[in-house]
Amino acid sequence: MPDTPSAPAPVILGNEPGSFPHGVLAERHPAIVRQVRDAFPLGPERRRALDALLVSCADGVVEPLPADADPTGRDRDRWARWGMDAYAGRSWYEVPWLWAESHFYRRLLDAFGHFGPGPWQGVDPFRPAKLAELDAPETDEELAALDGLDALPAEERTRALLHGSLWGNRADLGFRLSDPGAATGGGAEPLVADDSATLWSLLPAPAAGAPRREPVTLCLVADNAGRELVPDLLLVAHLLAEGRVDRAVLHVKPYPYYVSDATPADVLDALRRLVAAGGTAAGYGERLWTALTDGRVTVRAHPFSCAPLPYADMPGDLREDFAAATVTVLKGDLNYRRLVGDRWWPPTTSFADVTAYFPGPVAALRTLKSDVVTGLDAGTVSALEASGERRWRTSGTHALIQVRR
Ligand SMILES: O=P(O)(O)OC[C@H]1O[C@](O)(CO)[C@@H](O)[C@@H]1O
């Protein structure tokens, strides 16, 4: 029996040296700043801004967004609503870890000049790494392997594409920065929760000759670009082709975020990659291209997708989007943190209870890359604890499929 929480668990902070969140703030963030600094021929002003961010990461406090951080002024208002007034002046390590990480990326883009005006306005500082991943031989191999799918029975093909999308979440560039081995470990890794049968009960394959039913809409809240987004797109194309889904809304980030998170530009890159791949992959790519042009698939980049807050705080228009979907599938670790709240839940806490606020059926497809987890049964937790694998929560070697109808 899952445990119903009697009160919210403590929010995860990054203030404990030696903990995973502390390492992200103290080590990963400076490494990301240096990577961006080295990847572009930035002028002195931008380099100074990035160096100032490095100093701030080491021992600084959260500062209000400067007046020139956002030419439209709208983003400053948003950050005010998202907690800036409460957190400005406090240490990066003492505010919620989710907030600190999310805000770091906003500051990094600022320092880089992404919000302009200037030559780097609109440029994605992570694009070189994203494109390298999309062009890697491993991507060719993964796409060529799709040719073998046609021989599989329909249900196995669907399962293979779901698992491709799930484990594609291990391909996360920010993750690899500090743990290069983690994303490449071979072999099928164990699922710690698998509600895929519930997912398919929400998206059944239409039986031949069955009466027309209500249109089925899938909301897919994407995570990383490149080798995660490609299998996400394949899954969407497949569900459309099978008639399990009539329409799909793909949510991506409005600006570069958490190194490899997908933006609209990344959707185009991935789609072009599919279409150019030939074979079965190109067939999926072309189907998706058509579905985008006829409106069955739409792409949305909502500002809240880059908010430093849990989905429980989502605004009304986004709530309506999710409420209109037959099911919303959230990809990846960060979306999971935002879905269940980035808290020290006991792992057996009921997933259904902590997502009860979500405006409709919701599914999480996630590899475990941070401490938060819910919805595990007690036996699974004991087995994980007994396995001697200290980092099962954070190493990306385990995954889950959780669904709340
Ligand atoms: O790409 P994903 O699966 O959302 O994972 C990103 C994860 O990486 C981190 O930045 C560090 O692990 C987490 O904060 C975040 O949850």
Number of strands: 7
Protein structure class: alpha/beta
Bound molecules: 6-O-phosphono-beta-D-fructofuranose
Would you tell me the overall average pLDDT?
92
Poorly predicted sequence stretches spanning 5 or more consecutive residues: 173-189
**Cα radius of gyration in angstroms:** 21 Å
CATH topology of the largest domain: Rossmann fold
Estimated helix fraction? 40-55%
CATH class descriptor name of the largest domain: Alpha Beta
Strand order of the largest sheet: 1-7-6-5-2-3-4
**In percent terms, what proportion of residues is strand?**
5-15%
* Distinct helical segment count: 16
The global form is globular
CATH architecture field of the largest domain: 3-Layer(aba) Sandwich
Per CATH, the superfamily of the largest domain is Uncharacterised protein PF01937, DUF89, domain 3
Specify the biggest β-sheet.
7 strands, mixed
Order of helices and strands: HHHHHHHHEHEHEHHEHEHHEHE
What is the distance, rounded to the nearest whole angstrom, between the alpha carbons of the first and last residues?
17 Å
Count of distinct structural domains: 2
